[in-house]
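Sample entry as discussed:
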Amino acid sequence: MNNAGAVSIAPALAHSRPMPRWVRGILELLLILALWVVYSLARLLADTDMGPALHRADELLHVEGLIGIQWEVPLNQLFSDHRVLGLAGSYWYATLHYIVTAGVLIWLWRLGADRYGPARRALVIGTLIGLMTYISLPTAPPRFIGGYVDVLSLHAADGWWGADASAPRGLGGLTNELAAFPSLHAGWSLWVALALQIYATRRWVRGLGWLYALGTAIVIIGTGNHWVIDAIVGWMVIVAGWAAAEAIGRIQLRQALSQLLHRARRRERDLVLTTAPVQTTRPEAGPDAGSGADPVAPQVAKRLVDSEQ
């Protein structure tokens, strides 16, 4: 049976070549952009009613009092009384949140997919948990309550941000100022520290990661943008995201999908082979081929004559 034609018409049987690295890079950039869009939209979808947001802030302060972590007032006073510290903290809050996180993502990308994939997955999961909390539990930051100073607003003339949190000047309407609980500033900084702790080979680099996470927590509280408990829950969100990412990685989804694809290709091949046209083999043409006579007929006639005799 000649199956060459049947097999050649089944291109799905060929192994697909891996996607070029630059294409995967563009797809990752699009994914990060989509996450940023979702992040911004989720903040805008949250309720902006100040009454419930202030009530939740009071509840958080009550919880902090019970466990003894009401450190907002002395830190906020420190940043508001010292101009250099306040200005440095304002730039830290408004810029490093994005620059450092993006830099670590690029570094992980260059290390390879086995490092980039789990870390990016943890960041996405933790961020989505934070966004869902923003929508369901809008909370007022300290700067909306009497006795606290809005340090970024105090130094707005020296930076690119306006009086509306860390939003660029003139774009304050695009941010939700009640997205305080949990703090993704703190969460993303802990993600940076964890990524460096797991994948960096130099001890001083890992140390810088932890200093960055601690410094971010101090800055977001000292500038009046978050409560202490906001930072703690922000850390917890990222830890939960990393744990979920590790669990998903153990499921080995890629291997399972590869096996399913292999089975589908094998079934397609079997289907093509069973439905292919069958070419029968005819005997070699003999001297009687031109006459159209059946070469078996004379033998049958001879046997009949012999049996009658």
Q: What stands out?
A: Residues 19-254 form one domain. Residues 122 and 242 are 4 Å apart (CA to CA).
